[in-house]
TrEMBL record:
Single GO MF annotation: oxygen carrier activity
SUPFAM superfamilies membership: Hemerythrin-like
PROSITE patterns: HEMERYTHRINS (PS00550)
Protein's name according to its UniProt entry: Bacteriohemerythrin
Organism: Thiorhodococcus mannitoliphagus
Record InterPro entries: Haemerythrin_Fe_BS, Hemerythrin, Hemerythrin-like, Hemerythrin-like_sf, Hemerythrin_metal-bd
Homology family: Belongs to the hemerythrin family.
Amino acid sequence: MSYWSWDSSLSVGVEVIDGQHRRILDYINELDVARSSNDREKVSEVLMGLVDYTRTHFAFEEDMMKQAGYPLSVSHKRVHDAFVAHIDNYAVQHESGKDVTRKLMSELQIWLTNHIQNDDRDYAPYASKILNKSWLTRTLGKFFG
């Protein structure tokens, strides 16, 4: 049984973003498995993967919001930056020998649920327009280019 399961309440309705959010959720579940097996090396590996993937996901979102002209993109980026700093603090604590996995997983679940259901859903209509336009432009280019 997984620590956290994806459900429709976490969907923003943009396939690529939902897929990235699912991957973050998978990392959290992998972190739980590593914690449960008391495999500190695996916890480190998953934690670093989670941090790296989250940064990449945030960069993708921020670029997409900027391209789409989302009016709250600057404040959304600030929220991302604060979250990354918070998670980096957990990574430092882990590296110093503290077991932070349970607390981290709990905070991630709460934060991500709130962030996805509120902040990310707000930009979804903008993202859909830019992503659909990009798809349409590429498709039309294949036929008429």
